[in-house]
Amino acid sequence: MPDLFSPFTLKSVTVRNRIAMSPMTMYRSVDGKMSDFHVMLLGSRAAGGFGLVFPEQIAIQPDGRTSTGCAGIWDDGQKDSLQRVVRIIKDMGAVPAIQLGHTGRRGSEMKPWHGKTQLPASDPDGWQVRGPSPIPHGRRYTLPVQELSVAEIKEIHQAYADAARRAFECGFEWLEMHFAHGYLGASFFSPLGNQRADAYGGSREKRLRFHREALDAVRAIWPAHLPLTMRLGSDDFNEHGIQFDDAVWAIGQLKQHGLDFADISLGMNTDDMKNVPFDQIGFMVDRAARVRQEVGLPVGVSWNLGIPAVADRIVRQGLVDIVFLGRPALANPHWPLWAARELAHADPYSLIPEDWAWWIRSRRGPEGSLGWPPVQTAADAK
């Protein structure tokens, strides 16, 4: 029976454990290019034992960013910075993964600590946001949305394919398409964001067309032996939006178009969400498990899974295949090593590079001298 620290193989790629660093926007890029900061951030997490390491969502077009401080892959000149990230991740023993995306009507933002306000196209750091229909997202996102023409949709699909080519040339070994969190792909599938009357809107079959054609475009470029996955907005938590039954059906359709793995997340196509259990541990796990069982694809999931015993349990019970960690990965660059100690792994230091592990094993010193807190026992938890 696999556990959190068991290897996971998908296509020709074997990840050393079931722990992924989830993509998180850092707002540290310039002209879409990553920097020393990203090498530090991602290299340290790979060194800390994460098996699968993602940078932030990487934009396929300039207006696909969240802000002007976000990374991109729309130009060959951006490959050098991404290759640096790939090299350090591989050197530290992890699999380098990339998430391609387009923010759609949720783009053109200020940095969140500066207010996260959407900037108009007239602002030097803003642009005209685009979406499936001219419907603003709401609340903070109130600026007019330009409806995409069919020709522009085709250009975006080509941009996905071009980005996939560059991603392979950079050395990434796992590709995820980001169609969740209210971004462009998510808004095409949701009736909250898509009220088109053409072949890309109306029935859920038509609303999924954007996904199918984008996936087909990438599948034609991305090597068949490497994993091609998707983060899908699976529930809008709004009676007028995506319902989870729709998502299960959609993933089954996308499996027929070459999808290898489903990363289950929220739709977020409106701020008017109802009864979202954000304070509940692992609240998306049951949904992911249903996809795994009914569609027959391996699945990953995030949202409140930073407690080691919980992350380990959902893998042992066969509910998910990979645990995605966002904020826990930011809070603790050695989360996998810490989790291994908490879960009484036979050799926690086997998760980190051999040279570091040798020093820690060989020069333990007195109890507590390494700076680790004592391992919590069952008695401590009572």
Structure description:
This protein has 13 helices and 13 strands. The chain is an alpha/beta fold and 382 residues long. The chain has a single domain, classed as Alpha-Beta Barrel (TIM Barrel). Strand 10 (228-233), helix 7 and strand 11 form a beta-alpha-beta unit. Helix 1 runs parallel beside helix 2 (79-91), helix 2 packs across helix 3 and helix 7 (244-255) crosses helix 8. The longest helix is centred in the middle third of the chain and has 21 residues, at 150-170. The radius of gyration is 21 Å and the shape is globular.
Shape: globular
**Oligomer description:** single chain
Mean of pLDDT: 94
Number of DSSP helical runs? 13
CATH superfamily: Aldolase class I
CATH class: Alpha Beta
Tell me about the biggest sheet? 8 strands, parallel, barrel
Order of helix and strand elements from N to C terminus: EEEHEEHEEEHEHHHEHEHEHEHHHH
CATH architecture: Alpha-Beta Barrel
Secondary structure elements and their pairing?
Layout: E1 8-10, E2 13-15, E3 19-21, H1 36-47, E4 52-53, E5 58-59, H2 79-91, E6 95-101, E7 130-131, E8 146-147, H3 150-170, E9 174-179, H4 184-189, H5 204-207, H6 209-219, E10 228-233, H7 244-255, E11 261-265, H8 285-295, E12 299-301, H9 308-316, E13 322-325, H10 327-331, H11 335-342, H12 354-362, H13 378-381
Parallel strand pairs: 3-4, 3-13, 4-6, 5-6, 6-9, 7-8, 9-10, 10-11, 11-12, 12-13
Antiparallel strand pairs: 1-2
